Every structure is written in structure tokens, then in C-alpha cells.
Amino acid sequence: MPQKPSKTINTKLGDCKDVSTLFVAMAQKAGLKANLVLVQTSDNGTAALKLPAISFNHCIVKVNLDGKDYFLELTNKFLPFKAMPRSLYNAKALVISFDKAENEKQGIINLTFNNALKTVSQTKTIINVEDNVKTYTHIHTINGGRKSYYNEMFSESTTEDYRKKEFEEEYNDKLNKVVTLESAKLIENDRFKDALQYEAKFSISEKLQSVGSLKILEVPYLEKVYTRDIISSEKRNYDIDYSAYENTNEYKSEVIINIPEGKKFVEVPESKEMAYKNHLYKIKYELVSPNSLKVIREVNTPWDNIKTTDYADYKKYVEEVIAAEEEIIGFK
What we know:
With 332 residues, this protein is an alpha+beta fold.
């Protein structure tokens, strides 16, 4: 049973059902229609709950704002308003009303993210390439559910040393290189707004690969949009639970690669566009100058499950995307 809203306010303590009850009480005072929602989070299964039962393990709220229904997660203080964690995607739920007649009409539903804040990752990375070192300036704008992590990372509860260690490990993993972080600083943020933007500067010491007089490199994307582990099987017996694999709805990447003065790019891949159902991958190469190349990438990654019957087509699409991501750029 949830505690009284007055106790939650006075003690500043409460679990999911307590803060949800407080929100509903305050919403009613504000003239908003709001309801408690019992949830079985999707990490506990999306098909187990066929009938209302005591196996619900979470409580959120449903509120109507400007004619639209929103589901709100209230227990994560770093989550932006209207953003939803992945554990609620397609989760089984039961809306609870104070009206008995309305309750009798309710049934088990799957939570939708139709009006939820999309998780979009937008990056601009400037890379200055020398023979033995690459220096990066990375500007990352993130909104939606993933913003929660960065809200906490740049909060007063996180020390500078810990933040530096986390960012170094993150870039080490993404690039599979030894990264030396120079700085990671917040550019713009309001904890309750949609987006956060930060800048990181770091370097990697490594010698460029050569084929004769030709220097070669791959575009070092800081976010992998697809990985081989998702298509490691030749065939599947079960659908892919995509929200357990992917945490972002859209990627927008801009990478600018600068090589030394007097050098020029001589091998640049062709721009491409690929699609699988609602998945979309676009990549465009643009020479800004003989020694500066801009790569623009846009990717839509919806969280709909991949059916076993569609797996072969999806696998082919991912293989093509990965091949495009690994194409080589050459300069002399």
C-alpha cells in the first residue's frame, strides 16, 4: 500500500508507488487527469502477465496533458520529463482509476512510447590526424532516456576524477584504443529539459597504417549503430527483443577528419543509403578541402522486435551497414 502523500512530502522519502501517488494527488489539485499505473517491467518478460496479478513490480503514472496521454517514470531523479527507461518499453501494465466504473473496463495493456521523448544521440567529432597521434574534439548532444546517465555524470554527486575515469573507459571501449582524456566539460544542460550537451577532448597515440605511399584509416565512429553479435546466428528460433539490444532511437553523426597541410584525400568511399523496414542508414562523404573530409551519418533504430521470419533480411541489412562502416579512407 502506498503511504499518504503528506508523509512522502514531509519525509522526502518514498518508493515508486509513494511518489506516483503523490504526483496523482498534486495533479488532481492542478486540474489534471492522472492515474496510477501498475507495471511488470519488460526485463521481467513481456508475455508472462496474462491476467491482473500481484506480480506487478513497479508503479508509474499516466497523465493527460494538452489532450495527449503520457506515461511518466518518477523514481529516477535524473530522467528528463516525458522520457521513459527501456525497462518500460512494451511492458505489461494496468491503469488504476479512482472511478470504480472506469476500473471495471480496464484490462492489461502494453505500455507505448508514442508520446514519450525520443532518445536521440547527435555528435560532432573533429579529428586531427598526424603520423603518430590523433587528437579528438567530441561534442555530444543527447536527449531522451540516455540523458539520465549524463545528468548524473555531470551532477554534483559525481567527482571530477570519477567522471574522467568513466569517459576514458567509455572511449577506450568504443574505439578499442588506449585513450588519454584531456577534458570532459558540460556545455549546456537543464536537468529537466530534453537535451544535454558536453564536450570531450582526448588523444590516441598510434602509427597510421600504410600501403606503399598511401596512408589508410577507417572513420572512427564514437557510437556503433550495429554490432556483429546481433547477427551472429545463421538462423533464430526466437524473436530479437530489440529494446534489450538498442538504447537509442536515432543517431546523427558528423565526423570531420583533418590531415596535415600538403596532404590530400585520394580514396573516399561512395555515399550510401540502406533500409530495412523502419530501420534507415544514410552515410554521406563530403570533401571540405583537399585535406579535410566530412562524413555525415544518420541512422534510425526503432525498437520493434525482429521476428524470426524477418531475421534473414535484417541480417543482410546489418551486414551491409557494418561493411559500409568499415570502408577505408586513403590519403597521400
